[in-house]
Write a structure and sequence with these properties.
The protein is built from twelve helices and two strands. By secondary structure, it is mainly α. The chain has one domain (3-279). The relative contact order is 0.15. Mean pLDDT is 88; it is low at 1-13 and 276-280.
Length: 280
């Protein structure tokens, strides 16, 4: 395990609310050979995969045989703001300027007579809307994609689940895989940009997208901090850290919010303890 992970685990042991509870493993008798890349092994676990992947361990994971691909699957946390914040600022500047020209209108593809002008004063609202929409996307991806239960007979779907999110639950303190590497992230981000451009005027879509991009950066930074940070007891981030620890070590089928519990409230996926506290 990395030094940072050991330090984090060491500090967490002072507080039961955020103390990780790792599985004790006899590495020589585990279902996989930890001396070899795991991605090509997990698909053969079949019906044992789901239980195995939700038994967290304290060591990092090697996924690929190729050193190059293995390196590309990892990234440092600060690569996220370095890569995406300048793009977010650039898009915000460009699309605010476009809105300021005063010729952007909604619904022109349906009707020109009743189309709605979009003034520059709506820029903050569209930007915040992007942040909120990202928080919903964050929840939906985490719940329905990252926490899908792959069919036990499907070798490749088990592999896909493991590379997307299973490896994070197996080794939650592998700091090199806590944020999304920029290369694969760019494909997902491009998809959402194209999707918004198909349904909204360019300046409106671009402004919402810029807000969503900031939301994504905030999400990834909070996620990293929830694993390695030491928030003050009673603070918002402390409550989210305790919430996320429970998700990893107790309730993997609930508590899908990372940056907030908003959508867990809306879709009734709060953890059992949270539901109990809410009713008191």
């Amino acid at each position: 395990m990395e030094n940072g992970a050991m330090a984090a685990a060491g500090t967490q042991k002072t507080d039961p609310a955020i103390e990780p509870r790792f599985t004790v493993v006899d590495w020589d008798k585990d279902l996989v050979d930890w001396q070899k890349p795991l991605l090509w092994q997990v698909g053969s676990l079949g019906e044992k995969y789901d239980e195995w992947v939700h038994q967290p361990v304290t060591r990092p994971i090697r996924l690929f045989h190729s050193d190059l691909i293995e390196a590309l699957s990892k990234t440092v946390w600060y690569s996220v703001p370095i890569v995406w914040v300048p793009l977010m600022l650039y898009l915000s500047w460009v699309y605010y300027g476009t809105l300021a020209q005063g010729n952007v209108r909604l619904f022109t593809s349906f009707t020109t007579e009743y189309s709605v002008a979009v003034p520059k004063s709506v820029f903050p609202g569209l930007f915040v809307l992007g942040i909120v929409l990202w928080s919903l996307v964050e929840y939906l991806i985490h719940r329905f994609l990252f926490h899908m239960k792959p069919p036990s007979h499907s070798y490749y779907l088990i592999m896909l689940h493991f590379v997307m999110h299973g490896q994070h639950h197996k080794a939650p303190f592998d700091g090199s895989r806590l944020v999304f590497p920029p290369l694969p992230a760019s494909l997902v981000i491009a998809f959402f940009y194209v999707l918004l451009r198909l349904i909204l005027p360019e300046a409106v879509a671009g402004t919402v997208f810029a807000g969503g991009l900031l939301g994504y950066v905030i999400y990834d930074m909070i996620h990293y901090y929830l694993h390695f940070g030491s928030p003050h007891k009673g603070s918002y981030l402390y409550s989210m850290k305790a919430y996320h620890v429970k998700h990893h070590f107790e309730h993997q089928r609930s508590g899908f919010g990372i940056s907030s519990k908003l959508w867990d409230y809306c879709f009734h996926t709060l953890m059992p303890e949270e539901r109990h506290l809410k009713t008191q």
